Known about the structure:
Layout lengths: L11 E3 L20 E3 L21 E3 L21 E3 L21 E3 L20 E3 L21 E3 L22 E3 L22 E3 L20 E3 L18 E5 L12 H9 L5 E4 L5 E10 L2 E8 L1
Amino acid sequence: MGHYAQGLPLALKVLDGVAIKGLPCSISHLTQLDYLCLKNCRNLRSLPNTIGHLTRLSTLNLEECRNLRSLPNTICGLKSLKTLGLDSCSSVEAFPEIMEDMEHLEELNLCGTDISELPSSIEHLRGLWHLQLNKCEKLVSLPNSIGNLTCLVRLCVSNCSKLRNFPNNLRSLHCCLRDLDLGGCNLMEGEIPSDLWCLSSLKFLNLSGNHIRCVPVGIIQLSRLFTLFVNHCPMLEEIGELPSSLGWIRAHGCPCLETETFSSLLWSSLLKCFKSPIQLAVSWIGDLSFQEGMEYQSGYAIKEWDVK
């Protein structure tokens, strides 16, 4: 492998699906390398410490490298890195400590990894605006230092079924966080952090797949919320007062909301919430029963029905 790095282009290298077990230490000589894609290199087990010398690297794609165990601590030397993708790297058990500021990293994708927590040093990713942790089935907590990521716009932790410990300072993100995905986290009544209702910039909230009986009353404080998903919440019985900014709500697959009457608690609460005139589009086909749920979008509402 010693001569391998010498044949690499200076600005871009795609090794998608190549059966390599590692990169040569001499890759550090490619000081102009901007883009490195190792996606689906399923034999890749490690990266050399010298990768930290690629100070112009802006994108590192390691998606689906299922035998990759870890990242070297020297990754913090990638001062120009903007995108780091580890989606479906199912053998990665830990994210390395970030000992120096990485101000340019904007997107970090750790979906489907085997991590149980993030290091508190993640606060050094000062430019991070999109953090993806979907399907991290062993993730149990998020560090309080996430509250120091004042550029964070999107936080996605859907289908993290063991996640129970949230940062106690989520309110610190009130000026920046716009999208929050907590779908499929199996949260019980009272486990949704109260700080969530202080996120005054939030526009999208996904609470689908959780074990909540009602949408918490604190949601009325989210004055910019436009989209709310509460699909497949098996215990959901009530949707109370909602912010007037809401433009789209989905509540499909919630059996406790089902009713045969048009004047359901769900429907009446929506009529009370949406102060602006709305157009009702209701489909009647013989003797119908409410099967799927309700959807409200862009100034009109649709109740979905199905034949018994």
